Amino acid sequence: MAASGRDRARIAGDTVLGPNSPFRLRYIEPYAEAARAWLHAEAEVIDTTHLTPAQAAQQIAETVKN
After folding, report:
1. Model confidence over 27-41: pLDDT tens digits?
2. Residue 25 belongs to what H/E stretch?
3. Is the pTM of this model over 0.90?
């Protein structure tokens, strides 16, 4: 499974790790393959794209409790 354009666009506009982070781009395809092959079936995947760090932490905590 190829990484989506949305994922690449998010990496390109990242202001924390910098635009087009070599680290993130290096792992985008292996992550997309893992997501397709097993990750989404075996784990609770939380999309944090539009969440603040505090909101992401809250979402993770709520998911773990349930």
Report:
1. 999 988 998 899 889
2. helix 22-34
3. no
